[in-house]
Design a protein that fits this description.
Elements (H helix, E strand, L loop, with lengths): L5 H12 L39 H17 L3 H31 L13 H23 L2 E7 L4 H17 L3 E5 L12 E2 L3 H9 L8 E6 L5 E6 L4 H12 L16
Parallel strand pairs: 1-2, 2-3
Antiparallel strand pairs: 1-4, 4-5
Helix pairs in contact: 2-3, 4-7
């Protein structure tokens, strides 16, 4: 053999030995996720880490999802056991977290919502009775400070429905109400309605609101310097009371009768 050809054949031999297999140097780098850019692409053995050694939630979630994917695609006993192992660990950690959460809330009641909003049925009943009594007191105070001006019109079905509601409100709270017929026509449900003498425009100016549906109920102070549109259309007596209490500005903080310990 020609001595000049021998070195060339020796250099060519490794490439020929690859056969149909694609060379590391010629393959598309995006086809193989295990291929490295700066090293010779030796695949590292898949070393399964003990789940108890994970230090972050992200690591635990990643491993759990990986094992779940494997178990779903190939549900062998070993794959299912591998997933159940890490799933059991996550359930244990969740239980521990929930228990410590409760214990921490007990020791730090300032963060516990149920302290002032108890779940106990008897406490909820007592608080509702207290809130109802407080609402009645506020409405009585409001009756001496403000009254209602109600815009109505003939042929309005909601106006007819709200007439007995307003009458009941007056009987229970003593709040005075004045009906204004915006078109000058008086319906049978509101026999004492007064014609609009410019009060509608003044109400809109004071409140900054433009009613679109009748009846429109305004809360007006007795000096006639403030007005608030609190309801339009039909609503229940209790809803109307709640809106009046809210608009009154006389509400106290939730469960204000709950006593706290003095600073020690």
């Amino acid at each position: 053999m020609n001595k000049t050809i021998l070195p060339f054949l020796l250099l060519l031999a490794p490439a020929l030995s690859l056969g149909a297999e694609e060379s590391f140097w010629t393959e598309d780098v995006w086809k193989n996720p295990d291929r490295g850019f700066l090293f010779y692409g030796e695949k590292k053995p898949d070393e399964s880490k003990d789940p108890k050694e994970f230090e972050t939630v992200e690591e635990l979630k990643f491993e759990a999802q990986k094992r779940l994917n494997v178990a779903v695609m190939n549900p062998t006993e070993s794959n299912l056991k591998a997933y159940l192992e890490i799933n059991t660990l996550m359930l244990e950690k969740s239980t521990q977290f929930a228990q410590r959460w409760k214990e921490t809330l007990w020791a730090n009641p300032g963060f516990d919502h149920t302290v002032v909003h108890p779940n106990a049925n008897f406490a909820q009943v007592a608080l509702k009775d207290e809130a109802k009594s407080e609402k009645e007191d506020i409405l009585k105070q409001l009756s001496s400070r403000a009254g209602l001006v109600i815009l109505v019109q003939a042929g309005c079905s909601f106006c007819s429905l709200m007439a007995p509601v307003i009458q009941r409100l007056q009987q229970e709270t003593g709040i005075e109400a004045l009906a204004i017929s915006i078109k000058g026509d008086v319906s049978s449900e509101w026999p004492g309605a007064k014609p609009n003498n410019g009060i509608v425009k003044r109400l809109m100016t004071l409140s900054g609101s433009v009613p679109t549906v009748t009846p429109a109920i305004f809360l007006v102070d007795r000096q006639g310097k403030e007005a608030h549109l609190i309801a339009s259309g039909a609503l229940s007596l209790e809803d109307l009371k709640d809106r009046l209490v809210q608009a009154s500005g006389l509400t106290r903080s939730t469960n204000s009768t709950i006593q706290t310990l003095p600073r020690l």
